[in-house]
Each structure stands twice: as C-alpha cells, then as structure tokens.
C-alpha cells in the first residue's frame, strides 16, 4: 500500500512536534545532545522510535494531552501547549520510558486512518 499525501502530512506533523519537544525541553540544560530516530513499516502503519540523551520528561512519564477551548477568539488562544494533543490524537501505541540516561518514545501512525480512498 502506498501512502497518500494526507498520511505523509500527518507523519510530518507528528515528527515535527516530537522533535521540537526534544530540542526545546530535553536539552535545555546544555543546548546540545544526540537524537536517534528509527522507523519501520508494518502493514498500514509506520512505527517510530525516538531516543535522546536529554533530560527525562517530568515525572519520567508521558505528558497528557492538553485540551483547549477552541471556541474563544483567536487572540485568547494560548501560544503553545497543543503539541502533545496533536501527538496523542494522530498516533497509536504511544509509550515513553527512561532507559538509563536516555529517553525513548515509541509510537505508530496508522496510514489507513488517513487514506481518503478507503
């Protein structure tokens, strides 16, 4: 099965949010670090594992998705805080663990969910 444009767009969005969080939060104590990305295809899904040697997530657990009231005026919306909601909504099998001095985030993106032709 090929991947349509919507599936690619969703994968790009999720990866951008995840990697932005790593750069913005995991490396705040030193400004640099190592990020490893591993990806593999399994049926209609793209599975990803992202590892970094940055600071652990608060409480060493996956952040909950924040939900915002989107019915307010645009200027009343918060500037940030949407990332984990996007990640939770567009992935499945989302897990986080701290392995020694490394963070490991794994998830899958099921392209069948975004395939407009099915």
UniProtKB/TrEMBL annotation:
Q: Which InterPro entries does the record associate with it?
A: Anti-sigma-factor_SerPK, HATPase_C_sf, HATPase_dom
One GO molecular function term of this record is: protein serine/threonine kinase activity
Signal peptide limits: none
Which Pfam families has this protein been placed in?
Answer: HATPase_c_2
Histidine kinase/HSP90-like ATPase domain sequence ranges: 8-108
Which residue windows are transmembrane per the record? none
Q: Which keywords label this protein?
A: Kinase, Serine/threonine-protein kinase, Transferase
What is this protein's name?
A: Anti-sigma B factor, putative
